[in-house]
Amino acid sequence: MISRMIIAVLLASMIPVPVMADEKSELLKLKEKIANEREELLELKNTTTNLIELFVEQGLLDKEKAKVLVNAAKKKAAQEAKDQIAKERAEEKQVAEPKVVKSTVPDKPAGEKEKVKGKGPVFVGYVPEFVKDEIRQQVRADLKDEVVQEVKANAKKEAWGVPAALPEWLNRTRLTFDMRLRGSNDFFGNDNAPFLDYLSINRDGGHIPAFQRNEEFQNTEFDRLRFSQRFRAGIEMDITDSLKAGVRLATSNMRNPVSNDQSLGVTGQSYELAIDRGFLQYDYRDAKGKDRFSVYGGRFRNPFFSTDVVYDSDLSFEGFAATFRQRFNEDAPNVKNYKPPALVDLGGRFGINMGPQTPNTMFATVGVFPIQEVNLSERDKWLFGGQAGVDWLVHDQSRFKAAVSFYHFHNTRARANAPNSFANDWTAPQFVQWGNTMVPINVNEGNELDGTPINSRCNSTQSFVGQGCLYGLASDFNIFNFTALYDYAGFAPINVMFTFDFTKNFGYNANRIQREFAGRLLDNRDKTTAYQFRMDVGDRDALKFKNWNAFIAYRYIERDAVLDAFTDSVFHLGGTNAQGWWIGGNYGIANNTWVNLRWMSASAIHGPTLNVDSLLLDLNVRF
Q1: Most CB atoms closer than 10 Å: which of 3, 313, 347, 527?
Q2: What is the per-residue pLDDT across 503-525, written as a single tens digit (0 to 9) for each?
Q3: How far apart are CA 88 and CA 127, in angstroms?
Q4: Is 558 left (phi over 0), alpha (psi -120 to 50) or beta?
Q5: Residue 511: in which H helix or E strand, if any?
Q6: What is the C-alpha to C-alpha distance for residues 596 and 621, in angstroms, rounded to an integer?
């Protein structure tokens, strides 16, 4: 459009007119007419330029896009003008060259000279007035129609607002929404043993009377069909170019950090709604606009590259974290064109948190996260974490990512109470799943197995012989974790991804546990290793119709390899001390609508028998 206008201006300056060599006055008149026409076209050009600048000022057209548009038009106009000049010169040359025609007139006698009155007329190509009028009308029409159509198209594509009608902050705000409906069926083995529900015991302040004893145990015998839903809605706002804030609401039971599920079947009671996230995020960018480091504060998503062997996908982190990036080969075409996969819980590969999503970087993430503030005590519970890794686009869109991490959980293990003291009750965890080694916090002065009262509020009729009211974690948790994946894109659009996860807890101290809780553990051996092998095949996410991916994995997670409160809440009904296979996949049934199907078969590694098979079917939507 703009290029046509510029071409018209250039052509107007070169419109040839018929001029006789001796008709100077006529030439002056024609020049004056051409100048007037040029002035008119320049006026039209300036109007167009002013219109574009007005669009930019009003926010209807991005400044950079306007600049690119004008530069492209100038370049195209210059080339077309050059081609037009070359064409006209070729035509003039063709007209100027005399044609050789065989004469039928007899030659003049020798010596007779032809009388010549000057050099004769000079002819220049002529563009009729109606052609010039047509050019002017065409430029006006193209200017009006193409500008309007382009503006409308960009407005629809980029969701422009009307600045005069909408507040400015809406242009810097993004809404998020996702919802999941789940049906799950758990199948228990016939020879399963009973397992204490330590979380219920601690919340009730200790063992409850014998006639309610069934509430102290997990269900390990009766198959269970359940339905649940998860609803999450969030808002993110750009405060400045580098600072943003976010808040997310979610269905929640408000006592489970690794699940936002709301069970269906609560006798018509209203669901709970909680603030699942609320954070500030600062991204530092260099002169090229590349982010070099990010700082998070508040309650935010998992900042670490990890799998749900260590941290469940629904877990949010509270505290402060920072991620630093050192880029390499950042101008490579495959890096510029790379599009990260969707978030794990929004159509991506379920159970894998990709962490920093910047390819061709070496990255480091550190964080400090309060777990529990203890009143009237300086021994609050904390998580300190650090991670270093590399994210590399090995070839084209194939991606290799690996990281080593260390997580130190501070003040989370149990400490024994003195006789008839409750000073260390705070060491009982606020949340556990199951699997970690648990010990009673209260002790007595004599033989722990003689049935004598352990504390004034606990006696042998309300508790198991030798056990106290509250339970805590026997082990400290100083966790080393290595995670690696290779996402091969050579079969595009189908990807094949291999993932490996290894974890070792160096915090288990059998001698200390034996010294502090003598006789309270039947098995005090070190069981602190976990690993997982996994393969995914298919599209990297299932957010479009007919997109699909599938996976198969084997998991082995010993009882004290990780903190059972934060690991996966689905495999083996959550927690640790489990091994087995799981298989599943996603399929897009419409844009931003997909189903997830998983089958898990797991059994306990140590201690009493506990076999659990689970089938889960999820229907997910998002925008």
Answers
A1: 347
A2: 999 999 999 998 888 777 878 88
A3: 12
A4: beta
A5: helix 510-516
A6: 11
DSSP per position, 416-472: PPPTT--TTGGGS-S---S-S-EEES---SS-TTS---SBTTB-TTTS-TT--S-EE
The CA-atom distances, in angstroms, between 236 and each of 276, 318, 321 are 14, 18, 18
Cβ–Cβ under 8 Å, residues 175 and 213: no
Residue 209 tokens read as: 């009377």
314 exposed, middle or buried (CB, 10 Å; 0-12, 13-18, 19+)? buried
Burial, 89: exposed, middle or buried (Cβ in 10 Å; 0-12, 13-18, 19+)?
Answer: exposed
Contact 525, 511 (CB under 8 A): no
Can you tell me whether residue 63 is helix, strand or coil?
helix
- H or E, element range at 588: strand 578-590
CA-to-CA separations, 50 to 44, 132, 192, in angstroms, rounded: 10, 24, 79
Quick: pLDDT tens for 388-430.
999 999 888 899 999 999 999 999 999 988 877 788 888 999 9
Quote the CA–CA distance of 562 and 569 in Å, as a whole number: 13
Over the stretch 266-282, which tens digit does the pLDDT of each residue have?
888 888 889 999 999 99
| Type and span of the H or E element at 293 | strand 291-300
| pLDDT, tens only, 149-161 | 676 666 666 655 5
For 536, the enclosing helix (H) or strand (E) is: strand 529-538
What Rg do the C-alpha atoms of the chain give, in angstroms?
Answer: 38
pLDDT tens-digit map of 434-449: 999 998 887 644 444 4
Q: How many CA atoms are closer than 13 Å to the CA of 128, on its beta-carbon side?
A: 3
- Retrieve residue 459's tokens: 């006696």
Nearest to 186 by CA among 228, 225, 218: 225
What is the SS3 assignment for 90?
helix
Residues 6+ away with beta carbon under 8 Å from 29: none
**Rounded distance between C-alpha atoms, residue 96 and residue 123, angstroms:** 8
Q: How many helices (H) and strands (E) does the chain have?
A: 7, 21
CB 226 within 8 A of CB 573: no
Q: Is 601 exposed, middle or buried (0-12, 13-18, 19+ CB in 10 A)?
A: middle
Would you tell me how many other CB atoms lie within 10 Å of the CB of residue 599? 12
- Closest residue by Cα to residue 258 from 308, 303, 218: 308
Helix (H, G, I), strand (E, B) or coil at 11: helix
- Residue 90 has a pLDDT of 72
Three-state SS for 138-177 is HHHHHHHHHHHHHHHHHHHHHCCCCCCCCCHHHHHEEEEE
Low-confidence stretches of the chain (pLDDT beneath 50):
1-2, 5-6, 9-10, 13, 15, 17-21, 101, 103, 105, 110-119, 210-211, 444-453, 459-468
Write the burial class of residue 387 (CB in 10 Å: 0-12 exposed, 13-18 middle, 19+ buried). Answer: buried
